[in-house]
Amino acid sequence: MPSLLSDRCSCPGPPHVDLTEAYIAQHQASSQPPPESLRDCERSLLSNLKEHGWSHVTVRLSDLPQGSPLVVSSADDAMKDAKFQWKNPKESILRLFDDSALIPNATYRTSESGAPGESSVEPKKSWESRRCTSYNNNNQNDEQSEASPLDSVTNALHSIICTVNWLLHLPPNLLIAQRQDTPGTPTRHQYGCFCNKHQDGCNSHGPCNLDLLRVFHYDKVEPPKNQNDAIMGSSPHTDWGSFTVVWQDTVGGLQTYCRTCQAWRDVEASFDDNLLRFVIHVGDATSLAMNCGRELLGDGEHPSSPFFPSPKHRVLSPVTETRVSLVYFVYPSPGQSLESLASGVASWLETDQGKRGGAHAKTPSHGHIPYEHYYLLHDQSESNRNRLPKDVYLEICKRSMEQVFAEKWTQVQRS
Ligand SMILES: O=C(O)CCC(=O)C(=O)O
Ligand SMILES: [Fe+2]
Questions:
Q1: Which one of the ligands is nearest to 314 CA?
Q2: pLDDT of residue 193
Q3: Would you state the pLDDT for residue 369?
Q4: ipTM score over 0.90, yes or no
Q5: Separation of CA 58 and ligand 1 centre (Å)
Q6: For residue 384, what are the contacts with CB-CB under 8 A and spacing of at least 6?
Q7: Is residue 166 part of a domain?
Q8: Is residue 308 in contact with ligand 1, taking CB distance under 6 Å?
Q9: Which of 137, 183, 210, 391 is deepest in the core (most CB within 10 A)?
Q10: CB 341: neighbour CB atoms within 10 A?
């Protein structure tokens, strides 16, 4: 039975994970494995992502050393114009949507919906900015591509996913695009785009990463007469990439679908000016890589409900005031295909480092992979809606993820 809007999931939610110590440790010594003292933190994050596919994570701002990307974003020079402050994020974000706001290297979007044929347009606007600004900048001869004031937000959110990848002993530079440090690289670029046109020819060999920040402004709408007529600020979907980091204001509205209760649950939204709260979602690419790897390698063992599921979620339009959010989409390292990710993950999990993380532990039950859960595999184009998700998987699994994502973007309406 499909759930009604008014049905609510009653399962206990995944526990909050305090990432502060791990964040500090990773930023101090990312070449070392996580220390024993972080074992509990690692276990609870692993179990949230493995079972539910999402987790709340928190970071205590006042405990972070100066210079870490989350602190830099409050003081960074490049942010002076936009005055982005984690202590007052909503105000900073609303300012980006002032009539006069013009953000270099960012795309302003005014309308979108889940698919081209969909009659209702989601009432929201957004700024979209790539982590790689030189990729974003069409003028490839321009040595001084202008910094976007969103760069330090992007770097800050990227630094969180670097901690997650490290803490869970996931393979380096596979599910997330990382680059080795270049001596002398300024700290503020440490987690940002490492593209250096002279050194690694990002522009001639394609982008150094595909990651994308979206800053959303969800318009306030009239309260629906009936709960089941609620307007969607973002229609139900799974995210297509590796991971997503979400920051939402206290208005709330983000909901996750619980496949056990077949009902939606509100993702808690609260604010404390010293405690940054984020939600991490597992994306389709990670989930497919984790679950298809073993099948593709022919060992025949795979769980009936995927571990590391990519959670279905949606956003209800706010009825009291504008809702804002920062949504940072992390994509696999460029050049990977779904198949190479799957075999990359499978081989990594056999290494000593991979085994240490516990992500390899298999679920005892065996069954089929629910391809239909993955929106990446839904053919949302107007022309060809009846391709089965498994057929879509087989069709795209050898293609580069850049191509796959580019095609997906043409399937959903946004302008
Ligand atoms: O705005 C949010 O909280 C989430 C939006 C979202 O899920 C998305 O854009 O993929
Ligand atoms: Fe999403």
A1: 1
A2: 55
A3: 83
A4: yes
A5: 18
A6: none
A7: yes
A8: no
A9: 210
A10: 25
Distance 192 CA to ligand 1 centre (A): 21
| DSSP-derived 3-state class of residue 180 | coil
Q: Which two tokens stand for residue 277?
A: 């709260």
Give me the residue label for tokens 């939600």: 279
List per-block mean pLDDT (blocks of 10 residues) for the chain, which spans 415 residues: 63 94 91 93 94 96 87 53 72 89 87 73 93 52 58 88 94 82 42 47 63 96 88 95 98 94 93 93 95 56 67 96 98 92 86 71 53 93 82 94 92 82
Domain that holds residue 25: 17-411
Q: Is 211 left (phi over 0), alpha (psi -120 to 50) or beta?
A: beta
8 domain-assigned: no
Identify the three-state secondary structure at position 414.
Answer: strand
- Quote the pLDDT of residue 186: 39
pLDDT (0 to 100) of residue 141: 45
> Ligand 1 pocket check: which of 93, 212, 315 to mutate, most ligand atoms within 8 Å of Cβ?
315
- Choose the residue to mutate in 266, 281, 317, 325 for probing ligand 1, maximizing ligand atoms within 8 Å of C-beta: 325
Nearest-atom number in ligand 1 for the CA of 281 is 7
Query: How does DSSP classify residue 272?
Result: B
Please tell me the total count of domains within the chain.
Answer: 1
- Going by alpha carbons, the residue nearest to atom 10 of ligand 1 is 239
> Do residues 254 and 327 touch, judged by C-beta distance below 8 A?
no
**Best residue for ligand 1 mutational test, from 217, 244, 281 (most atoms within 8 Å of Cβ):** 244
Q: In whole angstroms, give the CA distance from residue 327 to residue 287.
A: 19
Q: Is 346 exposed, middle or buried (0-12, 13-18, 19+ CB in 10 A)?
A: buried
- Centre of ligand 2 to C-alpha 202, Å, is 28
Does the residue 10 lie in any domain? no
Q: What is the pLDDT of residue 79?
A: 45
Quick check: is 135 in a domain?
yes
Enter the pTM of the model.
0.89
Q: Tell me the two tokens of residue 154.
A: 């992007």
Decide whether any atom of ligand 1 lies within 6 Å of the 313 Cβ: yes
Q: Please report, for the domain that includes residue 342, its CATH number.
A: 2.60.120.330
